[in-house]
């Protein structure tokens, strides 16, 4: 707790604070436990892939249609870092020890949750994009620019989560999907942009054997060509 940003203590106002997540960009997430329920504070240094002000906008929009953490406030604590303060929502991350011990249940909840997100968020009202051309701006190696020309034919345009990793699905005590978190990359794209990464994350967190359980719960047949393409794009960006 020695590295706790001072403003987190100010927001907590004496309530217990627990570090709950670190990301690869140097960001941290803290839980504040109050008698009225849990709150979360996400903090991150400025980065092209991490805009907490934008995430606050996306959460506020998505919250009209699906279960996401309600935004309490957001702001900057320095010239080079920002924060986002939200209320908690019911459920536990799909990578919690309980669900890692029940991978098939977790995989099904992830698939069900992703389908609900894609069905309920209205494409026509979404002003953000996660299409290949927009993501290509983040490609690091010139050789990977070939991916722009190699994109597969579009299957179905939806509002994608943008980071459909297992950790961003919440699961209720009975094993059913209960909500999503982390919407910084939300935007319109082909649904396989999410499905490819959701299956990728099944491999990272559980076992590749449970990819099909996730896809079946979503309600779609496996499309290995699209999975391979969007995984390559993910790795390139």
UniProtKB/TrEMBL annotation:
UniProt keyword ATP-binding, yes or no: yes
Pfam families per the UniProt record, alphabetical: APH (PF01636)
Protein's GO biological process: response to antibiotic
Gene Ontology MF terms in the entry: ATP binding; kinase activity; metal ion binding; phosphotransferase activity, alcohol group as acceptor
Catalytic center residues: 163
Source superkingdom: Bacteria
Keywords of the record: Antibiotic resistance, ATP-binding, Kinase, Magnesium, Metal-binding, Nucleotide-binding, Transferase
Gene3D superfamilies for this protein: 3.90.1200.10, Phosphorylase Kinase, domain 1 (3.30.200.20)
Residue span, Aminoglycoside phosphotransferase domain: 29-227
Residues where Mg(2+) binds: 168, 182
Similarity-based family: Belongs to the aminoglycoside phosphotransferase family.
Protein name: Phosphotransferase
């Amino acid at each position: 707790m020695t590295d706790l940003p001072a403003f987190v203590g100010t927001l907590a106002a004496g309530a217990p604070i627990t570090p709950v997540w670190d990301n690869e960009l140097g960001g941290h997430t803290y839980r504040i436990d109050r008698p009225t329920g849990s709150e979360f504070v996400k903090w991150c240094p400025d980065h092209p892939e991490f805009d907490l002000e934008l995430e606050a906008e996306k959460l506020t929009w998505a919250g009209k249609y699906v279960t996401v953490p309600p935004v309490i406030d957001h702001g900057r604590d320095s010239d080079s870092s920002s924060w986002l303060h939200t209320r908690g929502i019911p459920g536990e991350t799909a990578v919690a020890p309980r669900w890692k011990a029940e991978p098939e249940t977790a995989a099904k909840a992830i698939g069900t949750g992703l389908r609900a997100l894609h069905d309920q968020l209205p494409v026509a009202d979404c002003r953000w994009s996660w299409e290949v051309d927009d993501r290509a701006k983040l490609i690091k190696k010139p050789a990977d620019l070939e991916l722009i020309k190699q994109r597969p034919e579009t299957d179905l345009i939806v509002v994608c989560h943008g980071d459909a990793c297992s950790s961003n699905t919440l699961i209720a005590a009975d094993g059913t999907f209960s909500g999503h978190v982390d919407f910084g990359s939300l935007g319109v794209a082909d649904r396989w942009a999410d499905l490819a990464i959701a299956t990728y994350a099944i491999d990272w967190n559980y076992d590749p054997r449970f990819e099909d359980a996730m896809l079946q719960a979503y309600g779609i047949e496996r499309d290995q060509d699209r999975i391979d393409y969007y995984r390559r794009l993910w790795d390139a960006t």
